[in-house]
Amino acid sequence: MRIVSWNVNGIRSVYKKGYLNIESLGDIVCIQETKASLNDIPKEIKNITGFKSFFSSPIRKGYSGVAVYTKIEPKNVSYSIGRKDFDEEGRVIILEFDNFYLFNIYFPNGKASPDRLKYKMDFYNHFLEYIENFKKNIIICCDLNTAHKDIDLARPKENENVSGFLPEEREWIDNFLKKGFIDTFRFFNKDPGHYTWWDYKTRARERNIGWRIDYIFINEDLKTSLKNSTILTDIMGSDHCPVAIDIF
């Protein structure tokens, strides 16, 4: 089974550009930053042959939003992590399958202001508490909006005081992994130079001046089922590229 996670930075935009090829991406495709309410999403995107689709939209139009396309029928679907101020931004879809829970999450960006950084850290900490209630295996597809180590961005020294690479954000990832979760890409690849986001304005993708902020995490018990993890840098259409795992 291939599971894919992709921040599309506007699902309608990527679709119009011809890059939203769900059928060829994977068996389960998690999309972040749809930037569209359900009523604004074209039926061609909602209804893709062979897939069930689920969308979570924020109260604020043209902002945030996540979606999941799956060939496998889920047992249950939830759009909440139990706090209204987080749920109303449309950042989460949780699908329950027979053997695992799949979380699709667009974590907040903390760059805009100190208030948004606090919101981001509150979201992080609440999420860590929330997942402790889940007893099945867990797969988390996300734009985490934080690079973990120096090798996860091209210019660590220049960004050490920027949200997305602050000590407290990186420490949270350390604590999260200590809870028994695995960064699937780093499970296979320990090399620098692998990124998932590049700044549009500076045409950073052409020079590979990027950040690795998109992840798929699994719990420790799923390690023996994990076959591969990769960054799909050849897929265009967004300032992020998809990440994928092959599992089970």
Description:
This protein is of the alpha+beta class and 248 residues long. It has one domain: Deoxyribonuclease I, Chain A (4-Layer Sandwich). It contains eight helices and 14 strands. It has helices at residues 11-17, 22-25, 43-46, 84-87, 114-130, 167-178, 184-188, 204-207, and strands at residues 2-7, 28-32, 52-56, 66-70, 76-78, 92-96, 100-106, 137-143, 181-183, 197-198, 210-211, 214-219, 226-231, 243-247. Strands 3-4-2-1-14-13 form a six-stranded mixed β-sheet. Strand 7, helix 5 and strand 8 (137-143) form a beta-alpha-beta unit. The chain is globular, with a radius of gyration of 17 Å. The mean pLDDT is 97.
Given helix and strand content, the structural type is alpha+beta
Quaternary: single chain
Number of domains: 1
CATH superfamily: Endonuclease/exonuclease/phosphatase
Q: How many beta strands in the DSSP annotation?
A: 14
Percent in helix? 10-25%
Helix-strand blueprint:
Blueprint: E1 2-7, H1 11-17, H2 22-25, E2 28-32, H3 43-46, E3 52-56, E4 66-70, E5 76-78, H4 84-87, E6 92-96, E7 100-106, H5 114-130, E8 137-143, H6 167-178, E9 181-183, H7 184-188, E10 197-198, H8 204-207, E11 210-211, E12 214-219, E13 226-231, E14 243-247
Parallel strand pairs: 1-2, 7-8
Antiparallel strand pairs: 1-14, 2-4, 3-4, 5-6, 6-7, 8-12, 9-12, 10-11, 13-14
Helix pairs in contact: 5-6
